[in-house]
Amino acid sequence: MSSIPAVPAANRLLNALPDSDRQHLLAHCEPVDLSFAEVLYLAGTKIPHVYFPIDSFISLVTPVDGDTGLEVGLIGDEGILGITLTLGVDIAPFQALVQGAGSALRISVPLFLQELERSRPLQLELKRYLYVSMSQLAQTAACNRFHLVEARLARWLLMTHDRAHADTFHVTHIFLAYILGVRRVGITKAALSLQEQKLISYRRGDITVLDRGGLEGAACECYRTERDTYERILGA
């Protein structure tokens, strides 16, 4: 493709690049609309495209016992889907599942690798993002092991709130139980507690954040740790 897409490059990694490098990369990207629950990659399959989310966000889910899975990462406009390509690995380590519908910029793997080879600033930016992704993965593993469901749910809602750029977003208890690796009754109890504290409201699959500060107080320290790591390595 030779024309820059009509969708603005409202992705923080792209915006951090020098203008000439950003425009050169954008010339090979195409705007796409991602649908809720759309599967972009399956774990263990070859990566066909790289995605830069704009107002969409994507769950990284590791399979567990066939039909279940656990979310180990969340990618929005702060990141990129396909980061393992910077290591020379074109096999997806996780299932990539669209959690928030919206727009993204997409580029084919051959063109992305071409741009990666050409642009030193892109290489450096993605190396930093890879570090942040590894840190998030380790933090999530510790969080899932040691923290209570309510604190983990508050953390996930904050992460989603950051990426949705809206106070209301769609998610069901069944899906939350799936990605947090707990029974549905556990999610229901945790969500009810957050509602009773007037931190969120929940109606027919739509969650609204009512008190952001209160939700941060209810979340475990993992949320602040991940946010601080991103800001320290990649900038606010």
Describe the protein:
The chain has 236 residues and is of the alpha+beta class. It has 9 helices and 10 strands. The protein has helices spanning 12-15, 19-26, 109-118, 120-146, 149-164, 173-180, 184-196, 212-218, 221-234, and strands spanning 30-34, 39-41, 49-53, 57-64, 68-75, 95-100, 102-108, 168-170, 200-203, 206-209. The chain has a 4-stranded antiparallel sheet. A 3-stranded antiparallel sheet has the order 1-7-3. Helix 4 runs antiparallel to helix 9 (221-234) and helix 5 runs antiparallel to helix 8. The longest helix has 27 residues, at 120-146. The protein is globular, with a radius of gyration of 18 Å. The two termini are 32 Å apart.
Quick structural gist:
With 236 residues, the protein is of the alpha+beta class.
Query: How many beta-strand segments?
Result: 10
Shape: globular
* N-to-C span: 32 Å
Radius of gyration: 18 Å
Sheet with most strands: strand arrangement: 2-6-4-5
Order of helices and strands: HHEEEEEEEHHHEHHEEHH
Mean pLDDT: 91
Fraction of residues in helix: 40-55%
Based on helices, strands and strand pairing, what is the structural class? alpha+beta
Give the low-pLDDT segments.
1-8
Enumerate how many helices there are, as a single number.
9
Q: How can the largest sheet be summarized?
A: 4 strands, antiparallel
Which strand-content bin applies to the residues? 15-25%
Q: What topology emerges from the helices and strands here?
A:
Blueprint: H1 12-15, H2 19-26, E1 30-34, E2 39-41, E3 49-53, E4 57-64, E5 68-75, E6 95-100, E7 102-108, H3 109-118, H4 120-146, H5 149-164, E8 168-170, H6 173-180, H7 184-196, E9 200-203, E10 206-209, H8 212-218, H9 221-234
Helix pairs in contact: 4-9, 5-7, 5-8, 6-7
